[in-house]
């Protein structure tokens, strides 16, 4: 069993110890073993339906394992936590709240005071390139801008892990490349552990310290250092 002391401001160690995940009578992943080191960026690729989102939901605490264990810094994951922020492909922004009030949300949940909330949210809005858009509503923004807001909202509370489920999957190629650059840039400033799910092999090679392929049978294989062609062949 991995036991790691919790240090504020550091990335979190995430462990799937023989975890089985599924829905009702439908098993999806069986006996998954994975250890993500603090601060590591792990990218999971795999064909559609292989269970990438299911794996992430388990780590997020949105889906309980049927067998085995899911651990964050040695403690059983029992539900979602602001320490493990999640970013989805479809933006999860609240449509009636401004950019500022969306980004402030995780801090409000943590009971951070109004002035500090505003200061931190505006800093992140600026950081993701949306200075001047704080008062806009999500529907007044492009898809790429909404993903920038999601990134700001995920990082404003200095989470120790960020779980990203095809966050750039719906964006056009140019916007996607801009968002990948922005993500690499902001990750340099945070110590957060990242688990990033994508269909896109080039994105995986660009972003990941480690690339894992989720095979059709649910097995997780490390293909770090593999070429694009080798990974594509494994999908
Ligand atoms: N809420 C659910 N209830 C029942 N079955 C589900 C549910 N969500 C996903 N599944 C099933 O679990 C399997 C894995 O789905 P999952 O979304 O994890 O795959 P994925 O690899 O993320 O796919 P994609 O790349 O298409 O998003 C699929 O067979 C899917 O139909």
Short description:
The chain is an alpha/beta fold. It is 33% helix and 25% strand.
How would you describe what is shown here?
The chain has 235 residues and is an alpha/beta fold. The protein has seven helices and ten strands. It has a six-stranded mixed β-sheet with strand order 6-7-8-3-9-10, sandwiched between helices. The protein has a four-stranded antiparallel β-sheet with strand order 2-1-4-5, covered by helices on one side. α2 runs parallel beside α4 (143-155). It is globular, with a radius of gyration of 17 Å. The structure holds adenosine-5'-triphosphate (ATP). Keywords: ATP-binding, Nucleotide-binding, Transport.
Topology, number of strands: 10
- Please state roughly what percent of the residues sit in beta strands, choosing from under 5%, 5-15%, 15-25%, 25-35%, 35-45% or over 45%: 15-25%
CATH topology of the largest domain: Rossmann fold
Mean pLDDT: 89
The outline comes out as: globular
Q: N-to-C terminal Cα separation, in Å? A: 31 Å
Radius of gyration: 17 Å
The H/E string reads: EEEHEEEHHHEHEHEEH
Query: What is the makeup of the main sheet?
Result: 6 strands, mixed
Corresponding CATH architecture of the largest domain: 3-Layer(aba) Sandwich
What would CATH call the homologous superfamily of the largest domain? P-loop containing nucleotide triphosphate hydrolases
Helix vs. strand class: alpha/beta
CATH class identity of the largest domain? Alpha Beta
How do the strands of the widest beta sheet line up side by side?
6-7-8-3-9-10
Number of domains: 2
Number of helices: 7
Oligomer: single chain
Name the ligand types.
Answer: adenosine-5'-triphosphate
Low-confidence stretches: 1-8
Q: Can you give the helix content as a percent range?
A: 25-40%
């Amino acid at each position: 069993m991995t036991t790691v002391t919790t240090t504020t401001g550091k990335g979190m160690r995430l462990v799937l110890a023989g975890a089985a995940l599924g829905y009702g009578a439908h098993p999806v992943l069986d006996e998954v073993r994975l250890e993500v080191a603090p601060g590591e960026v792990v990218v999971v690729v795999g064909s559609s339906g292989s269970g990438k989102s299911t794996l992430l939901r388990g780590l997020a605490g949105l889906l309980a394992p049927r067998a085995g264990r899911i651990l964050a810094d040695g403690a059983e994951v029992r539900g979602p936590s602001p320490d493990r922020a999640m970013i989805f492909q479809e933006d999860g922004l609240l449509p009636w709240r401004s950019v500022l009030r969306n980004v402030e949300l995780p801090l409000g949940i943590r009971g951070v005071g109004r002035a500090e909330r505003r200061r931190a949210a505006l800093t992140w809005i600026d950081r993701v390139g949306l200075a001047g858009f704080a008062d806009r509503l999500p529907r007044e923004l492009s898809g790429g801008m909404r993903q920038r807001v999601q990134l700001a909202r995920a990082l404003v509370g200095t989470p120790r892990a960020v779980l990203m489920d095809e966050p750039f999957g719906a964006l056009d190629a140019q916007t996607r490349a801009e968002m990948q650059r922005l993500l690499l840039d902001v990750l340099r400033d945070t110590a957060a552990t990242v688990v990033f799910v994508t269909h896109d092999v080039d994105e995986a090679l660009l972003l990941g310290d480690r690339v894992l392929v989720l095979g059709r049978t649910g097995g997780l294989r490390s293909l770090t250092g593999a070429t694009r062609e080798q990974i594509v062949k494994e999908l």
